[in-house]
Write a structure and sequence with these properties.
The chain has 168 residues and is of the alpha+beta class. It is 16% helix and 40% strand. It starts with 13 loop residues before the first helix and ends with a strand. The mean pLDDT is 89. The chain binds dinuclear copper ion.
């Protein structure tokens, strides 16, 4: 039988206690920044939306007709195929005020999908569909850049997203 009134004591070295406190403060700070980034600033983690067969994806809908789909209400879906050493289609044009969901996949090796002047930066892996949704409020041109080394033509692998004035 143990004495219930006897609570186990935790004796820690004062330095240890200080570092425990510091760790807890850091953890709380990280949790707060992640919460603010995710809920207030709209940061998204690029997700593998679905799996596809890289050998047949280019012949399978919707990838057999890569490009934009107008979903109405200023919403678009962009189906993009990455291959050595191009994005297909190389240029997309949407009106300002659009919300575009990118569905990017690769038919050969791993590529990157970075959209200049936005926080879009996704890895594109054969067999997976990487997806992110972005709102384009201001007219302008964004470069689509492959930022993962994919072979000899890697440096030339780029596309463009044009946001035209005149959208609602
Ligand atoms: Cu594709 Cu680098």
């Amino acid at each position: 039988m143990t004495d219930a009134s006897e609570t186990p004591s935790f004796e820690a070295d004062p330095y240890e206690k200080r570092w425990i406190v510091v760790s807890l403060i850091l953890l709380s700070a990280f949790m707060i920044t992640v919460t603010i980034a995710g809920f207030a600033l709209g940061f998204q983690v690029p997700g593998a939306e679905s799996r596809v067969d890289p050998r047949t994806v280019a012949d399978t809908a919707p990838w057999n007709e890569p490009g934009l789909r107008d979903l109405g209400n200023n919403e678009y879906a962009a189906y993009i195929i990455s291959q050595r050493f191009a994005f297909i289609p190389p240029t997309l044009t949407v009106p300002a005020g659009s919300s575009v969901t990118f569905y990017v996949t690769s038919i050969d090796v791993q590529h990157g999908f970075l959209l200049s002047d936005t926080n879009v930066n996704m890895q594109v892996v054969p067999g997976e569909v990487s997806t992110l949704t972005v709102e384009f409020d201001e007219p302008g041109t964004h470069d689509i850049i492959c930022n993962e080394f994919c072979g000899t033509g890697h440096a030339a692998m780029a596309g463009k997203l044009i946001v035209e004035a005149g959208g609602e």
